[in-house]
């Protein structure tokens, strides 16, 4: 239990007043022996037990009445999680706020989202209690730490508003840890507001072990998790892929692949209208949904032949999450999709070239060049979309060039070198080769088929990774997200998270002595061409990007053409979905695909991350803005009144005559 006026509890010794008064009254009477009273004393002793019990109860009721009054004045708070807080004032209260797009799931009746519900609950709680000397906010969109003046400010700060970004909870906790250690903070309360999405928590990341070890060495740190893990009801999300512009004589057309996903539907799914907006020209198409949603491949929209660049969006009717109902895109003439393959083995390099030289669409232009490591200086980084690196991991100037290449939005896939492993790169490194015994092979036990480069094909069928046979693979030490793994849990394919661009590591090679990747072909071809498409988007005058705080280097040079709501601050532009233009460059900003597909982590997995730490999870429903802690002073006032009524009832005169005040130790008090 916590108290809003804890100093009032210093008055608790006053509950001894009835006992002190009783003892003083006892000393006012002297016992005088009188022979004539001998028989009355004997009779009194026979009823002494019940009388003494009644007087003890009277004294107890008076004591409880005073105690209840003191507790009522101290304004106690209730809440199951408050037991670990006690009455100690924290030095700092930290709020770690998940501002990702999935946190905008709403309760339509209450018109409150997960994010606003969490902020209102937390602000109300902090106003009732004492949040210490410092109130600090770390939001997922910027990842920065900011001092907050008051709990009310949490509801209006730009850093607490909705965004189209994703969250990285372990990185935010690292920021909190750095602050606590740098400021030698003593007692701290860390409040995490999140919907527990897999992509936000990354429970298998090595960051958690390091964080756990660091926090266990600090004393007085209490973690509280406001968890919104419920599945939204009747929610649809929409996304556009493979945006292409084709010229047909004097006319032109856009070709789009559109994906609608369903979530939380308990009854029949109706037809829905999809609104298309191309440079402010609108049209509507009705689409039938099934249990998985709908997929529209190659949807054609005629445009003017002179319109070589531009923007558009697709939208759905309003539902429980407004941030996934619209998707923006930009278009321009397709660039040449150029790939550079760096390999220490000519035969292996040729296998990559064959897979990448054939375009997925005959109207696209592909170029794939194979070079040895010695000729890396010849790479035209500016016009290259994809780098295939099958050599010792780089360092020095080459590593810096590759990082700059990826930071420009391009893509790179690293395959194991035949011999020397090389240096660590993107916190990943190669270890020893593993060989299957005899004629056996390593089987693929799991792969991620809902998103990324191993996702199901447009028809909904999975890629045939279960048919893949691997005879040799190289152990990979990485902090990346596993997209496919062998039956011994070793990763086959990993995705390294980056702010821009795409980085992948594959632990085997396509040639026959290593695996059946090239022979079976389908998975290998689709995987590489999907990465190539990601990298090629950065070469075009129009590019698709995921929302992020550092999306635009020169924010003031980018003009907001279209967006969800008003983007008032220049610094907030990269955080919101929309279209931005800088002279002849166009950028469409949208939420990450994981915001549509990721599921909530089980509570048990999240709780295990805080094992042996002071931690409480508070499960909350979206739209529930009731207080986390309610005041109990009314309860104590009622208890006081009940105690006084019982005391009055017990003090009613007895039918028996009581003559000896020393024997009746409470009669004087009752009178």
What does this structure look like?
The protein is of the alpha/beta class and 671 residues long. Among the domains are: 2-78 and 633-670, no CATH class; 236-333 and 540-593, Sandwich (Immunoglobulin-like), CATH 2.60.40; 337-536, Rossmann fold (3-Layer(aba) Sandwich), CATH 3.40.50.880. It has 15 helices and 31 strands. The strands form 8 sheets. Strands 18-17-19-20-26-25-24-22 form an 8-stranded mixed sheet, sandwiched between helices. Strands 7-6-3-8-9-31 form a 6-stranded mixed sheet, with helices on both faces. A 4-stranded antiparallel sheet has the order 13-12-15-16, with no helix packed on it. A hairpin with a 2-residue loop joins strand 29 (578-582) and strand 30 (585-590). Helix 3 (48-73) runs antiparallel to helix 14 and helix 5 (169-182) packs parallel to helix 7 (207-216). The longest helix is centred in the N-terminal third of the chain and has 26 residues, at 48-73. It starts with a strand and ends with a helix.
């Amino acid at each position: 239990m916590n108290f809003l006026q804890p100093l009032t509890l210093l008055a608790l010794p006053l509950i001894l007043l009835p006992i002190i008064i009783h003892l003083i009254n006892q000393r006012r009477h002297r016992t005088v022996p009188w022979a004539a009273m001998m028989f009355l004393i004997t009779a009194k002793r026979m009823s002494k037990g019940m009388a003494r019990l009644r007087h003890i109860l009277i004294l107890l009721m008076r004591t409880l009445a005073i105690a209840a009054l003191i507790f009522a004045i101290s304004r106690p708070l209730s809440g199951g999680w408050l037991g670990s807080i006690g009455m100690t004032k924290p030095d700092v209260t930290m709020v770690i706020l998940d501002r990702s797009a999935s946190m905008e799931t709403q309760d339509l009746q209450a018109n409150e989202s997960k994010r606003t519900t969490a902020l209102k609950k937390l602000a109300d709680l902090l106003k009732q209690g004492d949040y210490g000397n410092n109130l600090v906010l770390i939001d997922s969109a910027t990842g920065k730490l900011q001092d907050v003046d008051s709990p009310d400010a949490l509801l209006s700060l730009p850093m607490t508003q909705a965004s189209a970004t994703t969250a990285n909870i372990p990185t935010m906790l690292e920021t909190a840890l750095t602050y606590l250690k740098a400021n030698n903070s003593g007692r701290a309360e860390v409040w995490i507001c999140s919907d527990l999405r897999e992509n936000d928590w990354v429970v298998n990341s090595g960051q958690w072990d390091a964080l756990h070890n660091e926090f266990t060495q600090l004393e007085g740190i209490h973690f509280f998790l406001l968890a919104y893990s419920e599945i939204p009801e009747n929610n649809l999300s929409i996304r556009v892929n493979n945006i292409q512009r084709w010229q047909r004589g004097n006319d032109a057309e856009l070709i789009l692949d559109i994906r609608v996903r369903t979530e939380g539907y308990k009854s029949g799914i109706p037809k829905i209208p999809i609104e298309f907006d191309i440079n402010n020209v609108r049209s509507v198409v009705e689409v039938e949904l099934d249990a998985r949603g709908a997929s529209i491949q190659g949807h054609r929209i005629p445009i003017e032949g002179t319109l070589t660049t531009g923007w558009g969006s697709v939208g759905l009717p309003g539902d429980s999450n407004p941030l996934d109902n619209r998707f923006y895109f930009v278009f321009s003439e397709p660039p040449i999709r150029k790939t550079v393959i760096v390999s220490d083995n000519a035969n292996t390099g040729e296998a990559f070239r064959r897979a990448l030289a054939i375009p997925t669409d005959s109207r696209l232009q592909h170029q794939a060049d194979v070079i040895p490591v010695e000729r890396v200086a010849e790479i035209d980084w500016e016009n290259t979309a994809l780098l295939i690196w099958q050599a010792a991991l780089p360092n020095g100037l080459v590593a810096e060039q590759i990082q700059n290449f990826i930071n420009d939005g391009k893509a790179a896939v690293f395959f194991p070198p035949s011999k020397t492993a090389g240096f660590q790169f993107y916190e990943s490194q190669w270890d020893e080769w593993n060989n299957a015994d005899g004629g056996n092979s390593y089987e693929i036990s799991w792969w991620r088929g809902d998103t990324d480069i191993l996702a199901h094909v447009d028809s909904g069928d999975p890629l045939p990774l279960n048919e893949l046979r691997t005879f040799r693979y190289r152990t990979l030490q990485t902090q990346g997200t596993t997209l496919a793994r062998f039956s011994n849990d070793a990763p086959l394919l990993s995705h390294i998270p980056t702010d821009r661009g795409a980085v992948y590591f594959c632990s085997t090679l396509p040639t026959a002595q290593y695996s059946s990747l090239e022979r079976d072909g389908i998975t290998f071809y689709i995987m590489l061409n999907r990465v190539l498409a990601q990298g090629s988007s950065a070469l075009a005058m129009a590019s698709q990007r995921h929302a992020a705080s550092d999306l635009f280097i020169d924010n003031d040079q980018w003009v907001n053409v279209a967006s969800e709501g008003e983007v008032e601050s220049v610094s907030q532009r990269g955080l919101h979905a929309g279209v931005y233009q800088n002279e002849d460059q166009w950028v469409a900003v949208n939420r990450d695909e994981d915001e549509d597909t990721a599921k909530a982590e089980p509570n048990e997995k999240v709780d295990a991350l805080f094992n042996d730490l002071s931690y409480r999870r508070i499960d909350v429903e979206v739209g529930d803005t009731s207080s986390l802690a309610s005041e109990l002073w009314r309860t104590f006032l009622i208890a006081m009144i009940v105690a006084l009524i019982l005391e009055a009832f017990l003090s009613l005169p007895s039918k028996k005559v009581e003559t000896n005040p020393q024997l009746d130790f409470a009669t004087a008090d009752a009178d």
